[in-house]
Amino acid sequence: MVTKVPFQKGLFEETSGEPALIGSKCGLCGQVLFPAKSVCLNCMSTDVESVKLSRDGKLYTFTTVYMASEHFPPPYTVGWIELPEDIRVFSQIRGWQEHPLKIGICMRLYIEKLWQNEDNEVIGYVFRPTTGETLR
Amino acid sequence: MREVAIIGVGSTVFGKFPEKAIFELGAEATQAALKDAGISPEDIQFAYYANLYGGMVEGQAALRDAGITDIEITNVENACTGGATAVRKAWYDIASGLYDIGIAIGAESMTTSPIAGKLIPPAKGDLSGELGMNTMAKFALLQRRYMDISGVTLEQIATVSVKNHHNGCTNPYSQYKKEFSVEDIINSRLICDPITQLQSCSTTDGAAAVVLTSLNMARRYTRKPVIIAASVVRSGDYAFRQKDIPFSDVTSKGAKDAYTMAGIGPEDIDLCELHDAFAVNELQHYVELGFCERGEEVGLLMDGITSITGRLPVNPSGGLLSKGHPLSATGVAQIAEIVWQLRGQAGSNQVPDAKVGLAHTLGGEVADLEAGAVGVHILKV
Fold it and tell me: What values do phi and psi take at A112, rounded to 5?
């Protein structure tokens, strides 16, 4: 029996097949943060609410890494995704072998297996190029 | 606050020395600095010792073997800015009048560290580190964005590495001491696209040390004290405040603080040792240190202005690219290089009539901040 565990808690959710990153939005200055914080790091207000971030964003920059990291064998690709909430999210990028990446292309969030930890499948967020799909 | 001067500097050769413990490297640099200052171990009243990948009380071990015990010793960690931080703290302890004479040391053995042969990850549990971030990926992400929005080419970026490797050929402390062409740099092993091995510094082993006193006391030991005109360390701001990643506010702010403290401007700098961990960094730092406006940085390089024979030599020592980068030692070693320049002791790498030098280090990868820490020192004679 494979158990799926998130790589860190409270970062994302997937309800009825719709994945979303969970950020926070400040009621005072409007700053959106990811990961979510209980205090706004921009103005220190505690008037913050939890918000689901947009699933679709744009590729801000990316790199393919040809040496292993703790969890990822080479080559793997990472990048910054710019979301409509005007924040950038660092993420693993999947689907880069099939679809050449370019700064500015549209990217979509998915929840997928990141790595295996003994019997546990460690899951997290990744972004993939949204080729052929229309943005909502 | 009192004026503070450097009366002695020392360094090991940088390279791969897996047979040497960190404290052996630290002791060697300390002994060289004491000898250069012409003082005894018992003259040292306090020490700051920067190291990242060793264990407990590394400074005490190094200083033990240099004959220094029974004093205040503080061990310092601030990633690649650790060495600059040690100097900054030593500067303050003398400027404030707490002590009269002390030493700042940086030492690192990357070949015996837990990350030997690996890319440098953030601290355990860091969100971006868990997802595959490391210091080279951070700057590869920056470089791709920079090339995309500015039109700067890989050949131009590789030229930084060609220049610094050229300078390092005649520096006895350098690891590489070898010329490379633009083609060599670009065609070397691809590690974090578009950064290749020779666009990157080698993480290596080494140590450096500087002896500081009040300026009044310095005149007893030397006819050419090198004055610390500015000493600045600051941490990075939240990444969400950074408008675009190629240029970092942390270096701009650190430089501005340093120029204010020294009462001079970037136009007064005769030479600069800056943090060229990756070739692309040098171009951004020209702008952030105030040497030119954004968009003029490639011109500064390609027109030879920052060559060793140019108007503003940058990394005349060979920089991190040629010398290698023992993380915590680098910031102290840069200051040693500038001291040799200002005393006219830099041999084949001497910049004529150098009176004012600037040292800059940038270090640390941590999620959600633009950088860990920046260090800026301005030295003058």
Answer: -140, 170
Has B292 been annotated as catalytic? no
- For residue B43, pLDDT over 50 is answered with yes
Considering Cα of B252, then B258, then B264, then B269, what sign does the dihedral take? Answer: negative
At residue B164, the 3 state secondary structure works out as helix
Answer yes or no: do A88 and B134 touch at CB < 8 A.
no
| Contact between A65 and B119 using a beta-carbon 8 Å cutoff | yes
Question: A54 — contact with chain B (CB < 8 Å)?
Answer: no
**Catalytic: B80?**
yes
With contact defined as beta carbons under 8 Å apart, do A129 and A95 qualify? yes
For residue B329, what are its two tokens? 């030692």
Q: CB A61 to CB B191 under 8 A?
A: no
Q: How far is CA B93 from the centre of its chain?
A: 21
Query: Average pLDDT by consecutive 10-residue portion of chain A (136 residues)?
Result: 90 92 97 96 97 97 95 97 96 95 97 93 97 50
* Statement: the pTM of the whole predicted model exceeds 0.80: yes
Nearest chain B CA: its distance from A86 CA (Å): 9
How far apart CA B197 and CA B192 sit, in angstroms, is 9
* Cα distance between residue A42 and residue B303, in whole Å: 42
Could you give the ipTM of this predicted complex?
0.94
